[in-house]
């Protein structure tokens, strides 16, 4: 055997999928769907009847959960659609950096850098933090992205 050490560079993840398949006819309003490779929340679903060529079609109108853009898709109701794994977690806000990232505690009392501030909450978070309020932020994560999506004031520090 040789005495040299082998170093392995890990460039792979655990293999967990960022989405799972679900039949289009079973996706409902307020559910999630992937449209144009973006995680979206469904705001409207309409189903057409079967026509001359067989399949009933589902028309989805959805809002991108990270940038707020409205997207639409039409899928046969018997076909599978990708549905993102969406997680929402609350963190206590510790600090805000100058470049717009926040430091927060995770449940095991570790410090974590969370992604940039959500565009419509930017001023509210900075103002509340500047006033010395104790803030809890909700972070939504899906398909490798995460973003602060809600804010709760739990009182003064």
TrEMBL record:
The task this protein performs is described as: Translation factor that promotes translation elongation and termination, particularly upon ribosome stalling at specific amino acid sequence contexts. Binds between the exit (E) and peptidyl (P) site of the ribosome and promotes rescue of stalled ribosome: specifically required for efficient translation of polyproline-containing peptides as well as other motifs that stall the ribosome. Acts as ribosome quality control (RQC) cofactor by joining the RQC complex to facilitate peptidyl transfer during CAT tailing step.
Q: Top-down, what is the taxonomic lineage of the species of origin?
A: Eukaryota, Viridiplantae, Streptophyta, Embryophyta, Tracheophyta
Q: Gene3D superfamilies, per this entry?
A: 2.30.30.30, Nucleic acid-binding proteins
Give the source's domain of life in one word: Eukaryota
Region feature (Disordered): 1-21
Q: Which residues form the Translation initiation factor 5A C-terminal domain?
A: 85-152
The alphabetical list of record keywords is: Hypusine, Protein biosynthesis
- Bias (Basic and acidic residues) occurs at 1-12
Which Pfam families does the UniProt record give?
eIF-5a (PF01287), IF5A-like_N (PF21485)
**Gene Ontology process terms (BP):** positive regulation of translational elongation; positive regulation of translational termination
Which InterPro entries does the protein's record reference? IF5A-like (IPR001884), IF5A-like_N (IPR048670), IF5A_C (IPR020189), NA-bd_OB-fold (IPR012340), Rib_uL2_dom2 (IPR014722), Trans_elong_IF5A_hypusine_site (IPR019769), Translation_prot_SH3-like_sf (IPR008991)
* Modifications after synthesis and translation: eIF-5A seems to be the only eukaryotic protein to have a hypusine residue which is a post-translational modification of a lysine by the addition of a butylamino group.
Which molecular function GO terms apply here? ribosome binding; RNA binding; translation elongation factor activity
According to UniProt, the name of this protein is Eukaryotic translation initiation factor 5A
Its family remark reads: Belongs to the eIF-5A family.
